[in-house]
Amino acid sequence: MRYVEAGGARLSAIGLGTWQFYAPEWGYGRKYADTVARPLVARALDLGINLIDTAEIYGLGRSERIVGEALGQRREEAFIATKVTPVLPLAPVVEQRARASLKRLRTDRIDLYQLHWPNPVVSDGPAMAGMRRLIDEGVVKHAGVSNYKLARWQSAERALGGPVLTNQVRFNLVERRPLLDLVPFAQSEGRIVIAYSPLAQGLLGGRYDADNRPSGAIRRANPLFLPENLERAAPLIDVLREVARSHQCTPAQVALAWVIRRPNVVAIPGASSVEQLEANAAAAELDLTDSEDDQLSAAADRFEPVRGAAVARGLAESALETVRMRLGR
Ligand SMILES: NC(=O)c1ccc[n+]([C@@H]2O[C@H](COP(=O)([O-])OP(=O)(O)OC[C@H]3O[C@@H](n4cnc5c(N)ncnc54)[C@H](OP(=O)(O)O)[C@@H]3O)[C@@H](O)[C@H]2O)c1
């Protein structure tokens, strides 16, 4: 495993995302939570993955509980990142939510505590006052944010009166906006960008096409998985396959290697099996060349998914299809 060090933290370049743990919206169900999720955590640690990302909202606390149970005696091998849902981002609320997360995670320390998204109405001052107290008490080691634009990340730092070590954002070959400002900021200031959905929710794994779409409400509601967009993504997947062939690896591994090739960036793919997790961990050792990087970026530039109003009808049809599948009709 390769590690990224900044601000006194050491994070594996590939982490483990755990939104999937007990999340009906992924369609993985109870069996996954019981038989796959815990082994995923144990195997992640075996492979040197220390960054385990969860959130109080995932499975309404169940993801944190599963992570806490699965870590057991191996807690010190992990860098636990969890998130507070900033619906009422006031200092006492943030402090109370952190203590509830500690219980579910069966620990006395959160290594990285992230505001899950920017509250559109309330500024970060009050939440960061709570965060500051948690840090001073040793309950939280590092502060983080998620889904923040650069200006708000910087203003969160001013509110905290110290570094907000990480910003967790959607970052993959299809969504490359973080390259414009967040990644350069992280590199120049010693911060870290945590890339979520680094596989574009599995699209970049190359398993899906217009005739074989994933089930589960989350991806049915993601415009990237509409048949027309899956068709449009085919040339990009072909380039991923071509690069993968020359490294004897898989398109998903190439997609992950592309993300974490940038300094001060780590990725937290979710996984539906232990085999996927093992492959994802191995992507940290994959060295792409500059020319492969350019080839992938150029292919990603050419991918123009249908967006906006044009996707509304497709998504409505997908939603209906999901309901019909649930009703067994
Ligand atoms: N902060 C936020 O707002 C936010 C938002 C979203 C996610 N996140 C975090 O980021 C994590 C990852 O993001 P994500 O789950 O949205 O998307 P992702 O990691 O891009 O996609 C995960 C899915 O890709 C497929 N996959 C994984 N490894 C693969 C491999 N080696 N080969 C082929 N397919 C593979 C699996 O689905 P199938 O096998 O079923 O195809 C898996 O469930 C989440 O678990 C969560 O911790 C945070």
Give an overview in words:
This protein is an alpha/beta fold. It is 45% helix and 14% strand. It contains 12 helices and 10 strands. It has helices spanning 29-46, 62-71, 91-105, 125-136, 150-160, 182-189, 217-220, 227-247, 251-260, 274-282, 290-302, 312-327; strands spanning 3-6, 9-12, 16-17, 51-53, 79-84, 110-115, 140-146, 164-170, 192-196, 265-267. The strands form 2 sheets. The chain has an 8-stranded parallel beta sheet with strand order 3-4-5-6-7-8-9-10. A two-stranded antiparallel sheet has the order 1-2. β5, α3 and β6 (110-115) form a beta-alpha-beta unit. The longest helix is centred in the last third of the chain and has 21 residues, at 227-247. The protein is globular, with a radius of gyration of 19 Å. The model has no long low-confidence stretch (mean pLDDT 94). Bound molecules: NADP nicotinamide-adenine-dinucleotide phosphate.
